[in-house]
């Protein structure tokens, strides 16, 4: 797979746009899915996934062909998603930790305030509920949980995509799982 | 009386990551058998994982490739000025 992709990349670098279409064809579903689960909205997912491919195309000469192309693509896409999520939030000091809540910051607080009334939750279809609960996760944990449980990627690869040490990725997955468990305690 | 090992949550988390060695796994299993509270917590965590994994796989819209290609710059950007 990687050898085939690298062949296409070489063609793209030489100016062959059709070779890039083949790359988009190969990775479109993975990338769209990760964007959709991160953003919870089809239009935004489409927009950001396209933007990610566009950036990959423009910067393709910077891709190190000894590495895995999908990791690089995921990295571009998750960064764009996180930027988009942060832009949508009101302008508090979002990264500041909330007092007495180790590791929690304003993002998580805002996320929790979004909670819907119980009767509305009960009416939701399972698929809708899954997406709603993922969307309530602080973005830090959301990326790790989506890559691990939706994309089913190995932890080592997630650590490369998010540019975080393996230990930090594990911590985020643990905290993400714990946050979800609390969110789901009424299920 | 609280007899739960201090690191029991950590053990659960590592177990869910597939990171426990057989003796730690044994330790966790024995504790879960004897402690309803921890067992409940563990079950809730694994239910959470199953819940997230029940998310269906999603496909990009059928015109995704075409639309993406339309968004690309027409000519490859090269270093230096052309023409």
TrEMBL record, chain A:
Residues covered by the RNA polymerase sigma-70 region domain: 24-89
A GO term for molecular function: DNA binding
Classification via InterPro entries: RNA_pol_sigma-70-like, RNA_pol_sigma-70_dom, RNA_pol_sigma-W_bacilli, RNA_pol_sigma70_ECF_CS, RNA_pol_sigma70_r2, RNA_pol_sigma70_r4_t2, RNA_pol_sigma_r2, RNA_pol_sigma_r3/r4-like
GO term, biological process aspect, one: response to stress
Residue ranges occupied by any RNA polymerase sigma factor 70 region 4 type domain in the UniProt entry: 128-180
SUPFAM superfamilies in UniProt: Sigma2 domain of RNA polymerase sigma factors, Sigma3 and sigma4 domains of RNA polymerase sigma factors
Alphabetized UniProt keyword annotations: DNA-binding, Plasmid, Sigma factor, Transcription, Transcription regulation
Source organism superkingdom: Bacteria
The keyword Transcription regulation belongs to this UniProt entry's keyword annotation: yes
Family membership noted in the UniProt record: Belongs to the sigma-70 factor family. ECF subfamily.
Name recorded for this polypeptide: RNA polymerase sigma factor
Lineage of the species this protein comes from: Bacteria, Bacillati, Bacillota, Bacilli, Bacillales
């Amino acid at each position: 797979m990687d050898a085939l992709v690298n062949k296409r990349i070489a063609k793209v670098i030489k100016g062959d746009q059709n070779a890039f279409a083949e790359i988009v064809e190969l990775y479109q579903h993975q990338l769209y899915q990760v964007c959709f689960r991160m953003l919870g909205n089809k239009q935004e997912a489409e927009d950001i996934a396209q933007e990610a491919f566009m950036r990959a195309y423009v910067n393709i000469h910077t891709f190190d062909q000894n590495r895995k192309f999908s990791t690089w693509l995921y990295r571009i896409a998750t960064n764009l998603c996180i930027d988009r999520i942060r832009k949508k939030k009101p302008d508090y000091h979002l990264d500041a930790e909330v007092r007495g809540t180790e590791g929690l910051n304003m993002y998580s607080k805002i996320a929790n305030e979004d909670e819907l009334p119980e009767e509305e939750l009960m009416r939701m279809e399972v698929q809708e509920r899954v997406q709603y609960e993922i969307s309530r996760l602080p973005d830090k944990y959301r990326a790790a949980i989506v890559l691990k449980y939706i994309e089913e990627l190995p932890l080592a690869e997630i650590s490369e995509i998010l540019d975080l040490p393996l230990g930090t990725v594990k911590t985020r997955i643990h905290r993400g799982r714990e946050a979800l468990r609390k969110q789901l305690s009424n299920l | 009386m609280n007899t739960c090992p201090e690191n029991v949550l950590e053990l659960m988390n590592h177990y869910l990551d597939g990171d426990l060695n057989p003796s730690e796994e044994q330790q966790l299993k024995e504790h879960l058998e004897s402690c309803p509270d921890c067992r409940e917590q563990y079950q809730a965590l694994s239910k959470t994982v199953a819940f997230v994994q029940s998310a269906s796989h999603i496909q990009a819209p059928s015109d995704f490739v075409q639309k993406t290609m339309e968004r690309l710059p027409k000519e490859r950007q090269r270093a230096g000025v052309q023409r």
